Amino acid sequence: MSIICIKCNKLFSTQSSHNRHVREVHKDCSDPVPYGRNTIWNNRCLEENCDCVFRCNKDLVNHLQKTHLMQSFETQFHCFENMSDFENWKSITESLNNCSYIFKSKHSSTIGEIIYYKCNRSKTNYIAKAHKEKRLPKSQGSCKMNVLCTSEIKVIKENGKILVEYQKCHYGHDLEIQHIRLPKSEKQNIASKLVSGITPQRSAKFSAFNLNF
């Protein structure tokens, strides 16, 4: 499937080549593309009577703020000495906000390595192989949406420092306990409770309670 540039109608075989073309030739943020156009972008506006989709998360956030007057978005900036300090901050942030962030991608740039973590409710580009057995539906339903949530963490490794740009606001879903990915330490804690004779239901309640502190 080809991707079309909405500014000059040039066709590209891959999303990455299209993105590079937009940055280098047109040198500006992408215009919104209607859902019906030939695009694989997942940063979609979900507001009523609006079918805009954007190349990057920042463009969607900017659209929601200016067009739909949403003021809840909050971008935070942090600096850490090492990845261990960052991981500790990430774990605390997930617990305090009842959410989870998973690795999405990384690439090298002129300023250093850049890593993206997305809200775990965001759509994944992974497609299961045809020969694999289909998974049974989860009792609590799938945590994945058909679009990308706006909440993300961008990590830049620059000059020995870990620079973080964090979009805190989630969009397109509620924060639901059943869809949170528990850290390994919390899973071990639940396992120890089960061994002690605490039922899975009570253990889950303890876990949900702890995530709020």
TrEMBL record:
GO MF term list: zinc ion binding
Keywords of this entry: Metal-binding, Zinc, Zinc-finger
SMART domains: ZnF_C2H2 (SM00355)
UniProt name for this protein: C2H2-type domain-containing protein
UniProt-listed InterPro entries: RegFact_GeneExpr_CellDeath, Znf_C2H2_type
Residue ranges occupied by any C2H2-type domain in the UniProt entry: 3-26
Coiled-coil annotated spans: none
